[in-house]
Inverse folding.
């Protein structure tokens, strides 16, 4: 399984992240809670982030994996 974690950082502190396995934004601090609540309430926005696994993660994984497998 490929998992997408999108991290949001402000002032060198992670305050929010998106986890494709959970299918939602998860606040790490109180600062991230309003954004997480707002974005999690928008189902189209969540689906866009979840689709990133298919459009970004898996193609990049295949490229990186083939490169690193060739180096072994």
């Amino acid at each position: 399984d490929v998992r997408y974690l999108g991290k949001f950082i402000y002032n060198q502190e992670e305050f929010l992240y998106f986890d494709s396995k959970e299918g939602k934004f998860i606040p790490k601090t109180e600062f991230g809670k309003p954004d997480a609540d707002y974005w999690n309430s928008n189902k189209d926005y969540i689906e866009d982030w979840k689709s990133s696994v298919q459009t970004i993660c898996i193609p990049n994984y295949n490229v990186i994996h083939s490169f690193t497998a060739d180096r072994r």
Notes: The chain has one domain: 5-70.
